[in-house]
Amino acid sequence: MHPSSRSSWTGSAILFDLDGTLVESMSTIERHTRLWALRHGLDPDHTLEVWHGRRDSDVIADFVPPDRVEAELQWMRDLSCRDVTGIAAAPGSRELVAALPADAWGIVTSGEREVALCRLAAAGIPEPRVLVSADDVVNGKPHPEGFLKAAAALGVDPATCLVFEDAMAGVEGARAAGMEAIMLGDAATSGAGVRYLSGFKKVRASVAPETVRASVAPETVRASVAPEPGTPSRLLLRFTA
To answer: Which alpha helices (H) appear in 83-127, and where do they start and end?
Structure first.
């Protein structure tokens, strides 16, 4: 989050983007995207620029005829699950999700489920109970559909969810769903007015019976128990300098 601000957040669940958020996969995705662009005679840099944060199907449809989209998607699926070189858990991400109740977190990804599961396995992160992928929505990010489906699957009010993202398309989708969003990165890569956090490396979480509450400052997140009877939440996060 912005280093000059301190705030607190109380809610019911945490939703994570996958690539570039829970999992360090951007070098792998860039390699695959460049290969795909080159085989179609496209500018790799431009293709990367328009691909980030969007569903493969949406981007591929921008470049190939409709009757070729599924074949190109299958090519990307096969490559993505065959080549996981460079895939790793983002620092602190495994520890964070391990500390969260299974019914208090989920993943909303622009990737397809098959590819998401391959990357989670390669990174050593367990499959969550709620994983909303490109296969599960009609409209990809920045549309809020995926975030709303995740909240519904967790049985929580969207307004009580906190979202961690690495792309503006995801931040916009989360906000459109009525959720608060935090961009992982820094001020240079975050959009105007977007809160950001450098990463999960110093995040600590512990289970609280009733509530999710976060007080936020730069660089560090710590958690402690603060139950509030009658609410469905189960986690307290404290972000301290």
So the answer is: 93-99, 113-123
Rounded distance between C-alpha atoms, residue 110 and residue 99, angstroms? 25
Task: Provide the CA 52 distance to its chain's centre, in angstroms.
Answer: 12
Q: What is the pLDDT of residues 52-100, one digit of tens each?
A: 778 888 899 999 999 999 999 999 999 999 999 999 999 989 988 988 8
Q: Which residues are catalytic?
A: 17, 19
pTM over 0.85: no
Residue 197's contacts (CB-CB under 8 Å, 6 or more residues apart) are 1, 164, 182, 183, 184, 218, 219, 221, 239
Long-range contacts of 225-230 (CB under 8 A, 24+ apart): none
Residue 25's nearest CA partner among 209, 166, 216, 134 is: 166
Residue 110 backbone phi and psi in degrees, to 5: -80, -10
How far is Cα 141 from Cα 134, in angstroms, rounded to an integer? 9
CA 149/CA 182 separation, integer angstroms: 19
Q: DSSP states of 60-75 as a string?
A: HHHHS-GGGHHHHHHH
- Could you tell me the two tokens for 139? 């409209």
Q: CB of 166 within 8 A of CB of 183? A: yes
Residue 130: helix, strand or coil by DSSP? coil
